[in-house]
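Quick question, first post here. What does this chain look like in 3D?
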Amino acid sequence: MIVIPAIDIKGGKVVRLYRGDFTKEKVYSDDPAAIAKKWESFGAKLLHIVDLDGAVSGELKNTALVKKIAKAVSIPLQVGGGIRTKEAIEKLLSSGAHRVILGTRACEDEAFIKDVISAFGEKIVISLDVRDGMIATEGWKSDSKIKAEDLLKRLEGLGIKIFVYTDIARDGTLAGPNIDALKNILAARDNALIISSGGISSLDDLLKLKAFEPQGLLGAIVGKAIYEKKLNLKEAIEKC
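> Answer (accepted):
Ran it through. Tokens below.
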């Protein structure tokens, strides 16, 4: 199982939110590239970058920082937040992103998803941002009427190979992952791989998740736990 450090960017700074609430923000650094280098030095093999400004506005806001991070490290980046056009995908990939994460547009436009899969293949990842079992959109500010499992099945059928599953109620809380909900997501897939996100607070949480590798769990994203020093990233990577 891959342990993937998150770098959430807002206003040029590395921040963490509580359950996606933009009014509950804590700043950890004003240098995202330095944080990326730090996590790489701890053994990270992949970084999860989120443009929070982009997620809310619906258009890329921190591409220059993504490019700076990509130049600062030698490991791949998966980048999400406000990516809703083919041009935005191309811009991020040319800026150094290895994979691009789509959320809102994936719920709204199946033809668009077919088009970008045809163009970019496995560089496209879908984010399943879930509140009470339903997909949330527009930077988690809006709730759809789409069940997470239904969206997964539909998009896996179109060729999506990797999904990031985030339990919004757990995100930024250090309350532990929602194991029951994760089981449902894993059971809904055929061959796609799942990256879990939200709530991880300790090595014990990660080891519980690692048990689901045979069911299709590819990795786990860690955020607040490493910024608050509740979790030793180097140890977590070695153990998982």
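The longest helix spans residues 110-120.
The chain has a mean pLDDT of 93.
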